[in-house]
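Ticket reopened. Same input as before:
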Amino acid sequence: MDALATYALRLGDDSLILGQRLGEWCGHAPALEVDLSLANVALDQIGQATHFLNLAGEIEGAGRDGDKLAFHRDVMDFTNCLLVEQQNGDFAQTIARQFLFSHYQELMFAALAASKDARFAAIAAKAVKEVTYHATLASDWVVRLGDGTEESRARMIAGLDWMWRFADELFEMDDVDAAALAAGVGADKAALRGAWDQRIDLALADATLARPAARRPVLGGRTGRHSEHLGHLLSEMQFLQRAYPGATW
Amino acid sequence: MIAVAAISSVERIRAILANVPDPEIPAVSVVDLGIVREIAEDAVTITPTYTGCPATLAIEQMIRVALDDSGFAHVAIETTLAPPWSTDWISDEGREKLRAYGIAPPPKGAGASALKNAQAAECPRCGSSNTEEISRFGSTPCKALWRCKSCAEPFDRFKCH
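Engineering reply: fixed in the latest deploy. New output:
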């Protein structure tokens, strides 16, 4: 795959894996309204993934469509960031992951909406409106849990503490990102960090929480070095198409 | 003569599509919702509401069947994302149909900027503005769950988008 195809693939993989993770909550969330919210966010992510993965296949030009890319790649071929593959844990941990990711994704899509490549721009302009809702949802819950009971606060702190180490990877600029940026297609992710920090700090202040202690960042997702969790997720997500290739209903 | 024929076939297609209901909210048609973006003699252009809306494929199939059944099998269906669909594309007639169906229509022209300070929805049953949001995410991607504090009925609100 060339740089632009990989760029689309990474965007699609982020959305796909997060969508699949959130789908695990369906029927298990702490309250009906939360169940609906998480399922809705999952649906938006999977919709975005479909568009970006189809685009990756189109740029690659080897006859693979979004479904083929989603269901017929092995774990080391996935290019999602490590944050989205983290386990749901308790509700606070899920919210921590959503909080860090949605604010990044909203800024990312807002920047990509100005892409010179009309295909990237169209998906991003459409998706950014959806992600605005996700970021608001996540921030609201960080405040509610963080500034809530002793128990909810402790869980929110623990959730953020775990997820924080995966935040730096979101803004990492490697060769693929540099090539996409130079072509006028991609966004300068490193430049989004300032705005992201502001949004995160604002919500944390509302939640009366401090930033988690800085940790050594964990990187590698973009080049296929994943945590053990991703393989388990894929084994469930891909089972049907692996067992019955091309099955439709 | 050719021009007259062209106009009439576009109008006929429009009339056919005006009878294709949204699969999730059958009270409104795909034309009312602004899903049908452009109608030409040989192609209909549609646009999805939400990227992940599960009804997108069903809508395309329903339009296909409606066109085929009316002798317009040669008319192609194309999908476009840009400019992105927004609730401003819902027609006035569509808004009235939503209200009659029990779904509070979205404020017009409000767009995404109204998200954080959404004005109170008007209860589609009793008309009161004494209402509150229960959940910003509802039974479909396009709806939020609200409650009327006057008549005590819960209701759906079409989300500003």
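Chain A touches chain B at residues 19, 33, 36-37, 39-41, 43-48, 50-51, 118, 121-123, 125-127, 129-130, 132-133, 136-137 (CB under 8 Å). The mean pLDDT of chain A is 97. Please confirm and we'll close it.
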